Target: anpra
Amino acid sequence: MLNGGSLPFEYRKSGPATDIALKEIKSLYSELFDVNYIYKDAGSQCSENGFGAIAADVYYSNRIDVFIGPGCSFGVDVIGRLASSWNLPVITPVGTNADLADKNNFPTLTRLSFSMNKFSQMYLSIFRRYNWTDVTIIHDVIHSFFIIVGDSLMVALQYAGINVERISFDSSQNDDTGIVLKQASLRSRVFIVSCSGDTFREMMLIANQLGMTTGEYVFIIISLFNGDSLGDFSWRRHDSLDKLAAIAFDSVLMVKLRRPTSDSFMEFERDIKTRASTHYNYTLEDLEANPFITSVYEAFMIYAKVANETISNGGDLRDGRAVTQKLWNREFRGLDGSFKIDNNGDRNTDFSLLDLDGTSVEYKVVANYFGLDGKLVFNDSIEIHWPNNRGPPLNRPYCGYDGNDPRIIDGSNSGHGASGLLSFISTCFDDNMEIKIKNKMAKLTLVTTKHLFELFLHRNQRRENDIRSNWWRIETEDILIRKFISRSIHSIMSEFSLSKSVDKHSSTSNDDGLLENTAIYKVSRVIQL
Model:
């Protein structure tokens, strides 16, 4: 086990849990077997170096039956492969790396803490609820945990069918997180972030400057537990930027390991703090007994239970694969009720989803993910406070990630005419751009109305001018009067029946309509007189 440093499972923090477990095991099983515990100091740094030599020394020098630990994923990788060849079980309280889930390579490995595979199940439950399928993982590289998050979630989410990309940065080199955010915005609106608390606050302040905290984006940060080595993930630093930070953090959701609430856990936590102070010269008074410490205790307890079953049934404790199978796909009693180790040897972990309360501006649990059931259960009394009450961000903006790929919005969503266009604009641009475009459209509408009114006046004036121009009047000297014979059918029939001759040239009678005076203007008959 690592000793010293800031990792949450190092020996000064996990040693008290070991002492409590050994005391209980002796109380429960002393008549059947005794426990000889060997502690090996692996230094303070989490790396592959040294773990293999330590494991080999213990294996060949002592007749051991099981490895409890290490916590460091790199160390678990080394010892897990060696233990497989030696056929010895390995129970790690941590070992979160996703690669360790491949039990073809680690057939005797059992993991009691969260794994990134289980973490991904929590994320997938959130993504399914809000139809988010395009995700970007943004992580720092200065801490092994941040790298593990990036590597592991990338693999797990890709396997689940999420369209995921990863962007890393180095805060120790003052990498520009603004550039990182702009790059991420070109492909998604949902960001999983893994970095220290101070770095995250700086990132959110930059996001606020870039206009990314109005509700179009969501930032999901991983904070394992209060007092972890990752830092303070609150917005408050009691400085001049607190007000802006509080606004920016309205776009943040936080994922944490669910904190147990049972009486047995509270008693365990008090005992841990007392032992850490009196036996390990380490103060845990203001800190929580984190889940890794709890898992150290539970690792000893579940192995003792299986060892008791194996010995009672005449089995061989040194048959690591047989012992391991007794641990897998099974429920055990823990400090906070029952927990299950799945058929792949990984614990089904519980997580909490937190959001800033709109009134107190403090993080509140809005949902819990229960690993035993694989369900995300939302709090009936506390809802997520989305920025500007816009609701959850769309997976993909209507105009695309870069604003140059507009969708066709149907009439039911956008309306018709100018109101529909304004609705379309409101989905495609940020608030400032939306106001500018609406103002431009208002001016354009005013100008267009003015031009139409002027056109109407011009046409009306032209019509009146045409009327006043007398173009339709005809001068009398331009009219010719001609006489035309126009014999009606009645007249002709009368002429035949009476055998009556008519002097066509002298008659001026119009009784039968035979003679007409007609006005002619430019060869056209105009009017009858």
